[in-house]
Amino acid sequence: DAGVIQSPRHEVTEMGQEVTLRCKPISGHNSLFWYRQTMMRGLELLIYFNNNVPIDDSGMPEDRFSAKMPNASFSTLKIQPSEPRDSAVYFCASSFGAGETQYFGPGTRLLVL
Amino acid sequence: AQTVTQSQPEMSVQEAETVTLSCTYDTSESDYYLFWYKQPPSRQMILVIRQEAYKQQNATENRFSVNFQKAAKSFSLKISDSQLGDAAMYFCAYRSAGLSGGTYKYIFGTGTRLKVLA
Fold first, then answer.
1. Where are the alpha helices (DSSP H) in chain B?
2. How far apart are alpha carbons B15 and B86 in whole angstroms?
3. What confidence score (pLDDT) does residue A78 get?
């Protein structure tokens, strides 16, 4: 089992640029979660999908953030335009069912200059 | 609203000794799950142990065990025979019962950094 795969692992970009983070969940898992981790706010759930459908996006900070899950094996989190305060580690996690144990990917460290 | 509190920003333990990390939470629900996750310097989040609120028996995974006190809303993690590889940030997390439409709420504490001294 390859685990949850995230890319890129590190991203450095300039303010105003579009950033796309990618996630491949564990095969067979039907729930996918996006988290953001910062020193100030800790680990926050941004959005999660169940069977490719967004269920709860109440954690998405603002309209600059969008997430999609076009199929069961791929999801993206997009920030457009990016701002320095978006700098954080973004985690993707998946589970077999939204209420089941989540398995996290290695994270993407984003730095917006 | 549910909250999760980890009041110990940092803890230290001597190798081979036992350490207990504290976690308290607040909820009005009766059915929920609690988790401990470990985050080593690699930043990967690793599940350590999970507890179902309806179970009275405390969960155990090898050297890791919990003390779940439902009435007190306390969920501490005990690490026995501490090893250098246990050094990491430890996060306590709460998962609500299923809400209408099948949604869940996940809330994480702010973490406790554990140092293991050789």
1. none
2. 9
3. 98
Higher-confidence position of B107 and A69: A69
Structure tokens at B65: 């065990």
Q: Which residue has the higher pLDDT, A39 or B91?
A: B91
pLDDT tens string B50-78: 999 988 899 999 999 999 999 999 999 99
Distance CA A92, CA A23 (A): 6
Q: What's the one-letter identity of residue A110?
A: L
Identify residues of B whose CB sits under 8 angstroms from chain A CBs: 33, 35, 37, 42-47, 50, 91, 95, 98, 101-111
Q: Kindly tell me the number of DSSP H helices and DSSP E strands found in chain A.
A: 0, 11
CB contact under 8 A, A56 and B95: no
Helices and strands counted in chain B (H then E): 0, 12
Cβ atoms of A59 and A90 closer than 8 Å: no
Residue A1 — pLDDT band, cuts 50, 70, 90? low
Question: Which amino acid belongs to residue B29?
Answer: E
Rounded Cα–Cα distance for residues A107 and A7 (Å): 8
- Classify A85 as helix, strand or coil: helix
The closest of A53, A51, A3 to A26, measured between CA atoms, is A3
- The verdict on a CB contact (< 8 Å) between B109 and A42 is yes
A106 min Cα distance to partner chain B (Å): 5
Model pLDDT for residues B30-57, shown as the tens digit of each residue: 888 999 999 998 888 899 999 999 888 9
Distance from CA of B11 to the nearest CA of A (A): 18
